[in-house]
Amino acid sequence: MPYLSLKNVSKVFPGARALEPLSLDVENGELIVLVGPSGCGKSTLLRIIAGLETPSSGEIFLDGKKINDTDPSRRDVSMVFQNYALYPHMKVRDNLSFALKMRKYSKVEIAKRVSEATALLEINHLLDRYPKEISGGERQRVALGRAIVRHPKLFLFDEPLSNLDAKLRVQMRSEITKLHMKLGATMVYVTHDQTEAMTMGDRIAVMRSDRKKGEGGKILQTGKPMDIYENPLNRFVGEFIGTPAMNFVEDIEFNAEGLPQIKGISGILRGFDGNIDFSNTVIGIRPEKVKVSKASEDKGSMNISLIERMGAETLVYLDYEGFSLVSKVFSRVEMKAGQKARVEINAEDAMFFNRQDGRLLS
Ligand code: ATP
To answer: What residue ranges line ligand 1, CB within 6 angstroms?
Structure first.
C-alpha cells in the first residue's frame, strides 16, 4: 500500500466547490509537488491531509492507517507555511523546541533533535535571536527546522518560498531538495510555480479547476517532471509546464499542394500530414523546437517583435498579422527586433491536441 493515499477526496465549501473527488498515492520517501494556478485547490488538499480541513467525501490513509478522524496534532505531520508562522516572542531555540516540549519529550532528546536540525540547516548561530532579528531566508530555515525536529511521518509545504526574493528562492529550492535527499522523508509540496515543480518533484501532480464550468480542482496529470514536460496529456498541462509556455498553432489552411500551412505564411510547417483533420486539431510546439534564422526575403518569414538575451539562451518573439510564436535559441543570436526571420516547425517536434477538449491526440 502507498505510504500516503487519498481516495476520492473532495471538498465543497458553502458556495464554492474547491475539489472534485480526486485520488493520489505517494510512496514512502517521495517528494511530490502539487502545482496549478491560483484557486485550483492545492492548499485545500494539503490542509485536508494535515487535518486542518475536513473533506466532504473520501478517505485519507497514512502509513497504513486511515486518518480521517485523527486529530491534526496526532497525525504525525509537519507543515511549513509561506509566512513561516514562527512565534515572534520566542527565540529561535525556543521556536525549534516548543512542539517537543508540548509533547513532553525529555530535555536530552530535545537538545539532540534541535542540534541535529540546526547543524543540517546551518542555523546554529541564530539560536539566541528572535525571529525579527533574522532575515527572511533564515526565518524560512527556522520554520524548516521546526518541522524537522518533530521527525514527522510526512512533511507538508504550502508555498514555502513565495515570500523570498528571486535569488534566495532558487537557493532555498535546492536546499529543500537536498534536505529531502538527506532525510529520505516523504514530502508533499504545494506551489503555483512550475519551475519549482519541475526542479524539486520526484513526481508532479498538475491541478486545475474550471470555474466557468463551476468545477473544483482536479488532478489532470501525475508523473515525473520530464515525462510531463515531454508528454503532457492535454493542452492545459502542456501550456502550464515549461517556460516560456508552449506555442499553439490554431489557424491552419491548405496550400495548392494540399499541405497544411499557418494561415498566410507558407514554408513554416515541415513534414505535416495533409490528412490530419485540422478543423479539430491544435498544434503545440515547445519554444526550443521552433527554429529561426535570418530571412533574406519576405516570403515565409515572420517579424521579430522582441529579442530577450538571457545569457545561455535567447528568446526570439515572432509575429505575423496577430499570430505569434516564441523561439528559444541556445546559440548566439545576431538578429534584431524589427527584422524578418525564417521560421521552421517540424512535424516530429509537434504535439497535437483536440480543439474542443484539449486532450492530446498523438
Ligand atoms: P492559491 O495558489 O491562490 O493559494 P490554491 O490552489 O491553494 O490557491 P485553495 O486556497 O485551495 O486554492 O482554494 C480553492 C478554492 O476554494 C478557491 O476557489 C477558494 O476561494 C475556495 N476556498 C478556500 N477556502 C475556503 C473557505 N474557507 N471558504 C470558502 N471557500 C474557500
So the answer is: 13, 16, 18, 36, 38-44, 192
